[in-house]
Amino acid sequence: MDGLDFAVRYPFSSEARAFIGDLQLNEHIVELGTERILKALNGTASAKVIYHESDKKNEIASFAAARMILGYMHNSFITNKFAVNESKVMHGYLNRDDDTTVDKIGKTFGIHTQKENERQMLGIPVYISFSPKAPHYRLINRRIFNGLVEISNDEKKRLIEEAIKKHIEKIPMVSDPPVMIQDAAKRIIDELPKHQTKIEVKDNDHPPCIMKLLESVKKHENLSHPARWFLATYLLAISMEEEAIVGIYSNLPDFNEKITRYQISHAKKKGYSVPSCATVTTYGLCCAICRIGTPIRWHQLDKSNKEALRK
Ligand code: SF4
């Protein structure tokens, strides 16, 4: 892979910045940047095959234009969606690229693994910084030797994806951009998916673990798969309509309406029950000592018990 192709795939890299150093922002680049954001919002961002050198440079510049638009919009929901979708596309490239490229990108974020016998090891602080919020990645479930965590190649790429996402999320504010950037921001607001639902919950409506998840969803933070699964079984168990659950999930930065509808309806058909508190604890999602066995029993507690547990 030559340097320009590398820069197209990883537009946050120093190589990418060098390629677009002398390129002027224009309507076409801003249009490409706008499309990039809209695709992220619709969950349709995907890898591209580009043949011509000028198109490749425009593609790299579109990433910078998208960041400028996002810096002007200063909207955490849109920025999160952009970061999640872009980092997923780059994860796809990492899966196709050779180990040298994966190592090069990893080192950009300090993800520098060492070989010990046949094991691939990573320092604990870096591991903690970029490991996803899933039980499988919790330190307690990992093999640790001499202060280093053993990781597989796939896990290394997942950590790099997380590092790229965090990097992209850090967008400086842009206060007075060119008019074409301001117009692009207006267009994105006009085309925002309209089904996003505002989440309104009152104190004690749900057990602490569910309240915490709903708070995260409200802030458009990503949820791990076990967290999504747990939340869905709970919301179905309290007889929430499928449409309302999809509305809640629409706040997630990697929301895909079709997949979400399918998963919710599949869970409902199968009648999966809400996991016990012991299972929720193994997911790392328990945040109180309610002694009710399963979160769904929260609704059998009286008001004073609920309040006592929240303190
Ligand atoms: S004890 Fe059960 S209900 Fe309470 S926060 Fe933990 S998992 Fe949720």
Ordered list of secondary-structure elements with their pairings:
Elements: H1 3-9, H2 14-19, H3 27-42, H4 53-73, H5 76-96, H6 99-108, E1 114-116, E2 119-123, H7 124-130, E3 144-145, E4 148-150, H8 153-169, H9 179-190, H10 208-218, H11 225-237, H12 242-249, H13 257-270, H14 277-282, H15 303-310
Helix pairs in contact: 1-4, 3-4, 3-5, 3-9, 4-9, 5-8, 12-13
The structure holds iron/sulfur cluster.
Low-confidence stretches: none
Radius of gyration: 22 Å
- In percent, how much strand structure appears in the residues? under 5%
Please give the number of β-strands: 4
Helical content, roughly?
55-70%
Number of helices: 15
- Strand arrangement within the widest β-sheet reads 1-2-4-3
Order of helices and strands: HHHHHHEEHEEHHHHHHHH
Bound molecules: iron/sulfur cluster
Tell me the count of domains.
Answer: 3
Mean pLDDT: 89
Q: Please state the structural category.
A: mainly alpha
What profile does the largest beta sheet have? 4 strands, antiparallel
What would you call the shape?
A: globular
Terminal-residue CA separation: 57 Å
